[in-house]
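Reopening this ticket.

The earlier resolution said the output was attached, but the attachment link was broken on my side. Pasting everything inline this time so it's all in one place.
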Amino acid sequence: MAQLEHHLEEFVDPLSNYEPREYGDAIQEALAEETVAAIRSRPYAEIAPDNTVFSALQALAGLKVASLLVVDNGRLVGVFTERDVLERVALRFHEVKDRPVCEVMTANPVVVFESDPAGAALSAIAVAGFRHVPVLDVHYAVVGVISPRRVLEFLQQRLA
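Inline output:
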């Protein structure tokens, strides 16, 4: 017992000398302290995985969007983007137009969670090179999609 009391007297709270982090500017602070939820992620477009490639192309063109989130029962299963059209559809259009979009989508895409630091969104776009990054909530439900334009809007608002 005396040994336990001795250890308790020596305890120093590690947060007792905590100094808040200082940032060089408002953008640095926003990327570290704000979450992905602060970045506009809506509207977004989605399609079911069993829809045809042709219907996905019609949706991209009709909605004038560059990506569709492929969602099955509220869960993200992939993304279908302009790049997928160029790489997996364009030269094989007649062969794949009536196939399910899940056969030509990008499966298991990089995602961010709305609770992640905003910097994670910028990293997924700038470092990993993805133009459209799905945003999920803590239950893995789709919340939206972020793009370079939306991240730029977020950053510009912090400079104002």
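Reporter confirms the inline version is readable. Helices lie at 2-10, 26-33, 53-63, 82-89, 93-96, 118-127, 148-159. The radius of gyration is 22 Å.
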